[in-house]
């Protein structure tokens, strides 16, 4: 981004996580810049959801100005970078666990919240992130574009992130894979516990619905053999006041 801002391109204008790709050498590449003239005349019009979702990375000053330049500004790129940085640490999209629709989020960013404060992703969702990173994020999405740092300053501020990193690309790749495997293992354990709990509920439901012997056979994957009887007895019974009794009982108490 430092090179991009110093070049004739001047600014990216569409910076977001989907435009940051990793090549076969594990090197990050920034894409989709310098194409403003092409995209401005494209015939395809995205649906409302996609349209507003693409605006979640856009700086508020550009959202408010209908005549803002298509290529954006360098300050707006810094704002977009802050949203990407939040995504990296929250692992939950540009606005984390926010339950609002993309359109509602964009409207709040444009108009600020009910207290007149800028609407931004909740930093409480990344409370375990080092403070110097959250400080950088807050600086980068400042409401005043002139108070946002440039990418040269950001490179210096984020240098502590490289602490402990290996000089070899392969070593870094292995460290990343180990961290990913550890996170995946934790996720598998969590999902397994949920599966066991659901299985237990299903077994209890079977025991309530079917005779014990039949339920046990089904739970063990065995086939239930049909039984034939020479004669049967049908029992009819009438419970006095059953309607009143049912109205005072829970659904599980009625059977």
TrEMBL record:
Residues 233-255 form the Guanylate cyclase domain. PANTHER family: GUANYLATE CYCLASE, GUANYLYL CYCLASE. It is a single-pass membrane protein. The keyword Coiled coil does not apply. One of its GO terms (biological process) is receptor guanylyl cyclase signaling pathway. It comes from the Eukaryota. It holds the Pfam family PK_Tyr_Ser-Thr. One of its GO terms (molecular function) is ATP binding. Coiled coil: none annotated. Residues 1-162 form the Protein kinase domain. It is found in: Membrane. Its main location: membrane. Keywords: cGMP biosynthesis, Lyase, Membrane, Nucleotide-binding, Transmembrane, Transmembrane helix. It comes from Elysia marginata. Signal peptide: none annotated. This is guanylate cyclase. Its EC number is 4.6.1.2. InterPro entries: A/G_cyclase, Cyclic_nucleotide_synthase, Kinase-like_dom_sf, Nucleotide_cyclase, Prot_kinase_dom, Ser-Thr/Tyr_kinase_cat_dom, Tyr_kinase_cat_dom. The keyword Amino-acid biosynthesis does not apply. GO terms for cellular component: plasma membrane. SUPFAM superfamilies: Nucleotide cyclase, Protein kinase-like (PK-like).
């Amino acid at each position: 981004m430092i090179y991009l801002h110093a070049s004739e391109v001047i600014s990216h204008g569409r910076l977001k996580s989907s435009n940051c790709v990793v090549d076969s050498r594990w090197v990050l590449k920034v894409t989709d810049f310098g194409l403003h003239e092409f995209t401005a005349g494209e015939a395809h019009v995205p649906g409302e959801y996609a349209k507003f979702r693409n605006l979640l990375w856009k700086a508020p000053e550009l959202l408010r100005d209908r005549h803002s330049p298509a290529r954006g500004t360098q300050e707006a790129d810094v704002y977009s970078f802050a949203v990407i940085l939040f995504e990296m640490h929250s692992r939950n999209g540009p606005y984390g666990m926010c339950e609002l629709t993309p359109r509602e989020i964009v409207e709040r960013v444009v108009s600020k919240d009910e207290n007149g404060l800028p609407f931004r992703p909740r930093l409480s969702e990344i409370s375990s992130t080092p403070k110097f990173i959250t400080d950088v994020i807050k600086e980068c999405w400042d409401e005043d574009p002139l108070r946002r740092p440039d990418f040269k300053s950001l490179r210096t501020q984020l240098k502590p992130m490289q602490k402990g990193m290996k000089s070899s690309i392969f070593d870094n790749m292995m460290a990343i894979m180990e961290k990913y495997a550890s996170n995946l293992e934790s996720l598998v354990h969590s999902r397994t516990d949920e599966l066991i709990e659901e299985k237990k509920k299903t077994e209890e439901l079977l025991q309530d619905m079917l005779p014990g012997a039949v339920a046990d056979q089904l739970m063990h994957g065995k086939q239930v053999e049909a039984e034939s009887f020479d004669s049967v007895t049908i029992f009819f019974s009438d419970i006095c006041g059953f309607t009143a009794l049912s109205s005072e009982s829970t659904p599980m108490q009625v059977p």
